[in-house]
Design goal:
This protein is an alpha/beta fold. The chain folds into two domains: 5-83 and 261-278; 86-252, 3-Layer(aba) Sandwich (Rossmann fold). Helices cover 36% and strands 15% of the residues. The chain has helices at residues 16-19, 41-54, 63-73, 86-89, 100-103, 123-132, 151-156, 173-178, 200-206, 232-244, 255-258, 262-278, and strands spanning 5-8, 24-29, 57-60, 77-79, 109-113, 137-141, 162-166, 182-185, 211-214, 227-229. Helix 7 links the parallel strand 6 and strand 7. Helix 6 packs across helix 10. It is globular and about 60 Å long. The two termini are 16 Å apart.
């Protein structure tokens, strides 16, 4: 089979990693999983520290995770933010159909795509924004996770300018993004979200859509590419500016987008990994 690389996204691999004759072990830290409600953080941190000490390479997807992992892994920890299938989402830039459940909504459409988890999204913030902008349509593509029944989501669903379109398959997401005016990242700015780089950011940018998001740490260096806001009033003002004068989308070949495709990131990762394998 040749060289085996053990590539894990989770530290709970004790026993498995010892049984596999791997030439290298990679820990790809994409989330602060210990911060998810219900996870035993003490056990998780203990096992993660052990993995950080043993892994040949550690890739992290946000500045918070980079700092967290580098305290043990040191220079073996490499920051590589989340990326997107640029070619797939760029289909939204082309002329094409708009799904009926979106096309029937008249007026400006502001959209969030993703699971409606209340440890990720700031629903209090969203509700205030909706109240401040009764003439805009707030569109949510995704569902609440199992066993979640957030009362604010229930209240929002009763408003005429809020539209929950439910889960959509990956292949049709460009069709939905084609039909919106502004893409949203209305995330919480603490807790679990402290360690997150939203995967959907580069999906939105690949689709050619202007993005407005709350000030989570991972987005702080991207103020030239997206509108970063702190309050509901700032959110409404930023959206109003975009609707009045829509910005030109970032070019698909621009390094700020092209460097964050899956292939571009994998190339950089392999440049780090291959010398480690060759040295075995």
């Amino acid at each position: 089979m040749g060289d085996i690389v053990l590539w894990t996204y989770h530290p709970y691999i004790s026993g498995v990693s010892e049984a596999i004759p791997a030439a290298a072990m990679v820990y790809h830290c994409v989330d602060d999983l210990a911060a998810i409600p219900g996870v035993d953080a003490t056990i998780f941190r203990m096992m993660e520290d052990d993995l950080l000490a043993r892994a040949d390479l550690v890739f992290t997807t946000s500045p918070y995770l980079q700092d967290h992992c580098a305290r043990i892994a040191g220079p073996r920890a490499i920051y590589e933010r989340n990326v997107a299938d640029i070619e797939h989402f760029a289909q939204a830039r082309q002329k094409g159909s708009i799904p009926d459940d979106l096309g029937c909504i008249n007026g400006p459409k502001l959209c969030y795509v993703g699971v409606l988890s209340d440890y990720k999204l700031d629903f209090h913030f969203i509700e205030k924004c909706v109240q401040l902008s009764p003439d805009w349509n707030w569109v949510f593509i995704g569902q609440e996770p199992e066993r979640q029944a957030n009362p604010i989501v229930a209240r929002l669903a009763k408003r005429s300018n809020v539209h929950f379109l439910g889960y959509k398959t990956y292949d049709v997401l460009p069709d939905y993004l084609r039909g919106i005016d502004v893409a949203l990242l209305p995330n919480l700015t603490s807790g679990y979200m402290s360690g997150v780089f939203p995967m959907k950011l580069y999906e939105y940018l690949a689709a050619g859509k202007p993005v407005v998001g709350t000030r989570i740490a991972a987005l702080s260096q991207l103020a030239e590419q997206i509108s970063i806001i702190d309050t509901p009033q700032e959110m409404v003002e930023a959206v109003a500016t975009i609707l009045a004068s829509p910005p030109e989308p970032i070019a698909l070949g621009h390094p700020d987008l092209a460097n964050f495709s899956w292939n571009a990131r994998l190339d950089r990762m392999m440049q780090r990994l291959v010398p480690i394998i060759d040295a075995q």
